[in-house]
Amino acid sequence: MMKNRLLHGLGARGLTRYELAIVLTLISLVLVILLGLFQEMVRTAERASYRQEVGALKSAVSLKMLDYVVRNDTRGLAAMIGENPMELLREPLPGYVGVFDSKEETSLQSGQWGFHSPSGELVYAARFDDKGKAVSSLRYIRWAIEPLYQDTNRDQQFTLGIDRLESVVLKVKK
Questions:
Q1: What pLDDT digit, counting tens, does each position of 24-55 carry?
Q2: How many Cβ atoms are within 10 Å of 117's Cβ, its own excluded?
Q3: Quick check: 96 and 80 in contact, CB under 8 A?
Q4: Alpha-carbon distance 8 to 10, whole Å?
Q5: Other beta carbons within 10 Å of 151
């Protein structure tokens, strides 16, 4: 029985169709595994970048807050509430796309930031959940500068002039 040979040459035996199918199957399997590893590396890099960016934002908010506290400027401190934390940085983060007024957050791509001015929230588009696991669709993580205060009138909301403002902090919104 004569076998179909793909390679001919100086005494080279060549590959049969079955051998070629096995080689291509193995190559495909290796590529699928490598693609999965590459995608996980991209997600890990995005999570690391996100953590670093949040750290920079928190530091900027803390420095500005401390400046107001040292100067005993309660009004300046209160003015930080709902402010865009990106404006406290020397230059915006690489994924920052700007301010939006409506529900334009859906136009954010993975790894991008935008400031929703009506709510005073900085929005991040992520492809991971709270535990860092990959998710199939974009998830929007919202951050805001919020007051830390003594609720004098016990209404569970900060009221300037009534409640004692102690500081402000950049917090994730639930």
A1: 999 999 999 999 899 889 888 888 999 999 99
A2: 13
A3: no
A4: 7
A5: 13
**Containing H/E element for 64?**
helix 17-70
The neighbouring-strand residues paired with 65 are none
Cα gap 168→28, rounded to integer Å: 54
Whole-number pLDDT of residue 133: 77
What the block records as the tokens of 127 is 């492809």
The model scores a pTM over 0.90: no
Q: Is 97:114 a contact under the CB 8 Å cutoff?
A: yes
Cβ count within 10 A of residue 50: 19
Q: In this structure, what is the dihedral angle of CA atoms 146, 149, 153, 158, given to the nearest 10 degrees?
A: -20
pLDDT tens per residue, range 83-111: 999 999 999 999 999 999 877 777 888 89
CA–CA distances in Å: residue 30 to residues 27, 42, 43, 87: 5, 18, 20, 46
Query: Helices marked H in 71-142 — which ranges?
Result: 74-79
- 83, with CB counted inside 10 A (0-12, 13-18, 19+), is middle
Q: Please give the single-letter amino acid code of residue 153.
A: N
Residue type, 146: E
Provide the residue type at 13 as one letter.
Answer: R
10 Cβ contact list (under 8 Å, min separation 6): none
Sign of CA dihedral 33, 36, 37, 38: positive
